[in-house]
Amino acid sequence: MDMQTPVPPTLEVRGLKTHFFTRAGVVKAVDGVDLSVGAGEILGLVGESGSGKSITGFSVLGLIDAPGRIVEGEIRFNGEDLRQASPRRLRALRGGEIAMIFQDPMMTLNPVLRVDTQMIETVLAHRRVSREQAHELALQALIKVGIPSPQERLRAYPHQLSGGMRQRVAIAIALLNSPRLIIADEPTTALDVTIQGQILYEMQKLCRETGTALIWITHDLAVVAGLADRVAVMYAGRVVETGATADVIGQPLHPYTRGLIASIPTPATRGQPLAPIPGMTPSLLNLPQGCAFRERCARATGACLQAPPAVEHRPRHWARCWHAGEP
Amino acid sequence: MSAPAVTTAAAAPARAQTPLRQFFADFGASKLALLGVALLVLTVGAALFAPWIAPQNPYDIASLDILDSKLPPGSESGDGSMTYWLGTDGQARDVFSAILYGMRTSLLVGSVSVVAAFFIGAAAGLIAAYFGGRVDALLMRAVDIQLSFPAILVALILLAILGKGVDKVIIALVVVQWAYFARAARGAALVERGREYVEAARCMSLGWGRVLFRHVLPNCMPPLIVIATIDLAHAIALEATLSFLGVGVPVTEPSLGMLISNGFEYLLSGLYWISFFPGIALAIAIIAINLVGDHLRDVLNPRNAL
Amino acid sequence: MLATIIRRLLQTLVVLLVMSALVFAGIYLVGDPVAMMASPEATDAQREAIRASLGLDKPLPVQYLTFLGQAVQGNFGNSFLTGEPAMRLIIERMPATVELATVAMSISVLVGVPLGIAAGLRPTALSSRAIMTGSVLGFSLPNFWVGLMLIMLFAVQLGWLPASGRGQTVSVLGVPLSVLTLDGWASLILPASTIALAKCAMIVRVTRAAARESLPMDYIKFARAKGLSEKRVLGVHLLKNILIPVVTVAGLEFGQVMAFAVVTETVFSWPGMGKLLIDSIINLDRPVVVAYLMLIVFFLVMLNLIVDIIYTVLDPRVRLEQRA
Fold first, then answer.
1. Which residues of chain B lie closer than 8 angstroms to A285, CB-CB?
2. Contacts B159 to C, Cβ<8 Å
3. Which pLDDT score is estimated for C165?
4. Is B247 within 8 Å of chain C by CB?
């Protein structure tokens, strides 16, 4: 019998809780998140602003600043426990095997440093190569992401590039050290729709070719629909539904996911009134007891005063809802 | 469909606080600021009540005994009538008493100049903001030029021209300081000018003087008050410096700066107390004002706070 | 860029003219210079002779123009005291003051910037609060008193350092400098530290404010996300951003230090321009005072211009926009 040692997923997060201890109270930005991504897989992490998706990304990299910190949970990268890792090890991973792309490239690229400086330092921080070699690598990375006249762009300052180009530079930086995992935090939100499409396509291609795992954080379910293999939906700090993209979008289990899908205007619903989800997102300072969605949910009952666990209702399709799948 | 539930952030304790009470609460939160206030009260009190607290009037020549000169701190006077807690200087004056009287002069000169500079500067700034155009441009050029020159130089030249005397020193200080108030007042007034109540007042055909001083000025007070406190510290330090250099107050009405200057020559012989204690008194006064002013600034403008 | 420089130079010229008029008005119109020059027993005829020789019998505009004409040539008349050309006296003493100011500012920046960054990194930590309180002390304590206390401690009590005067100098390109000798440093350190205390406090505050504004920025977070060492994040990414406001402030403060050296030089009997100025004011040596004023005005205005230029060099956003 062929006993294969199961390959651990590239990233596995279990029960992650990141809280911010502010003067006004404890903000439970992430309050119980499970997710996993395998090599070459693209996971879409979807949620509205304040749902905790960005914080989840930062938590993986250990980039949570005071007054926040990770209070609970397991984060494993290729089996390695990141919470136990030394600061030195974490620093070696960041920008190396785990890369991150931020949302607004105007703010993430240092305005007073040239592009080549910012790219070369990333290479030199992780590999022992000469400056010339690092420069060459930077050039190659820019070509890979489709930036025209890369030599000139290298010598430019961030504010001299357009928004789309800056984000491509950010992606190039992420790719410099051939990461095993890329966490992209709303990288196309600030860009034109056409550029967005291009970048999505290129990212997908790159991941397939290199076997890099990608977590794409966004608030736009439509973006994720065309891009991701699996989807995780976040609400008020928790992942409420997780599964293959086709499953989650085609047959959503959680009422929030349903609401999200229903509220997207499509050609089919043209002429009809928009259908938003009633109510407002609860403040993370003051979460309702039990299921956080309870106060906006049509299916809510007394049972919902207890926080529902994640249950695998279908193969590889989980949801946190006592009434999962009900109409 | 469930009723929309709008939850706000953790319910803050209901506080029926007037802005003034809020201000005092915020201000009192800093122990340093309270320390500053305490020190300030101490120094002002000492200065005000000097004639009653001081064991000796150091400017009454008749009460001095030349044999008691240059005594170290803690010595007894020749006739046993008093203890020179902080020692005596070259003319047998009790340093402690001299400090109390000197503090009076220092605080007086400083406060008067700040108040005068406040009114002149604030008026100038408000007028500039209100009328705009050439008046504004001219005034701000003057302010810019004035501010780019070191205060000490301006003061020195003025005193070189005007000569010695307490009133001349005050004039010099006012000239040095008005520009800060003018700039701050103009800035604040520009913000206020766009507001509706100014429009309303103008619609009622109120004279510009009235609009400016009854309506706009009160709203510009916070930054002006902060500048006033900081400026007071500067004024006192500047006056002390000028007196130390010998171009400030006359010998008959010495300020702390002059006392320090007097003691300079004795420093090298080891008679430190003649300069040292007046200096400490001066430093305490300035530090107290700065502590208060610093925190005032933080309280009145939350963006700067820790 | 060139257009801007030319424009600024013209503005500078205008300011200089205005200042020269003010100085002229202030010094030559107030009081009677003849009374200063002549001895009390001088006869009327002698006074008239002096008046004529000073050109005081001519109409005002002519006097002013003569003054300007002479000024441009660097001739401000001779010192009433020593008879030497006033400008030459001042230029002789300039290196001492410039040296003192440069050393003092260098100390302030080298000490103040790291302290400011440290205070900005962790604003609520005890060390940061201590630094900030220290800075309040730093600029509260009157400059001359700090000097006196330093003399008291290091010169009188401990006897380690001299209480006054400048140390041994070495001539570099014809300019005597004392930074190059150990003895020179022994005399430099107390006066420079006196000045540096207050300036350091100011630099700490400016740096801290700039650091607090820059540290939460995304590019700092991104730099960390790239796995860069903290040393590089703070030393390159942060520093280059806060350097802009810090350098601007330091540059302007240098001008203030040059002027305020007057006090320190008096306390430490440092043979610089400032001491000369005070002595001249007290002795009513007007030509020297005028020469000093014009020189300082010129210097300050040029300094402002240089700081502006440095600002554009440091900040690529400003520099490149101007070229566009």
1. 9-10
2. 281
3. 77
4. yes
What does the block give as tokens for B1?
């469909």
Partners of residue C19 in chain B, C-beta under 8 Å: 145
With H, G, I as helix, E, B as strand and everything else as coil, classify residue A16. strand
pLDDT tens profile A140-156: 888 888 788 888 888 88
- Residue A305 neighbours by CB distance under 10 Å: 12
The pair of structure tokens assigned to B21 is 């009470």
Interchain proximity A111–C219, CB inside 8 Å: yes
- Residues with Cβ < 8 Å from A59, sequence gap 6 or more? A16, A18, A30, A70, A75
Q: Which residue of B has its CA nearest to A296?
A: B2
Identity of the residue numbered C251: G
Cβ separation A107–C217 shorter than 8 A: yes
Chains meeting B at 3+ CB pairs closer than 8 A? A, C
Angle (CA) B241-B247-B253 rounded to 5° is: 85
Surface-to-core class of residue A4, CB atoms within 10 Å of its CB (0-12 exposed, 13-18 middle, 19+ buried): exposed
Is the model's pLDDT at C110 over the cut of 90?
A: yes
Q: Measured on CA atoms in the order B179, B182, B187, B188, is the torsion positive or negative?
A: positive
Sign of the dihedral defined by the CA atoms of residues A159, A163, A169, A175, in that order: positive
The conformation of residue B58, written as its DSSP 8-state character, comes to: T
Contact in structure between A78 and A266 (CB atoms under 8 Å): no
User: How confident is the model over C218-269, as pLDDT tens digits?
Assistant: 888 888 888 888 888 888 888 888 888 888 888 888 888 888 888 888 888 8
The answer to whether residue A38 scores a pLDDT higher than 60 is: yes
Please give the backbone phi and psi of residue A129, each rounded to the nearest 5 degrees, phi first.
Answer: -130, 170
Q: Which chain A residue is nearest to residue C320, measuring alpha carbons?
A: A160
Quote the tokens at residue B115: 């108040």
B210-214's contacts with Cβ under 8 Å and 24+ in sequence apart are: B211/B130, B212/B126, B212/B127, B212/B130, B213/B126
ipTM summary value: 0.80
Residue B253's closest CA among B76, B69, B108, B56?
B108
* Tens digits of residue pLDDT in C303-312: 887 887 887 7
Option in C217, C237, C316 nearest A157 (CB): C316
Write down which chains contact chain C via at least 3 CB pairs under 8 A. A, B
Per-residue pLDDT band for C105 (boundaries 50, 70, 90) equals very high
User: What values do phi and psi take at A113, rounded to 5?
Assistant: -115, 150
Give the count of Cβ contacts less than 8 A between chain A and C: 76
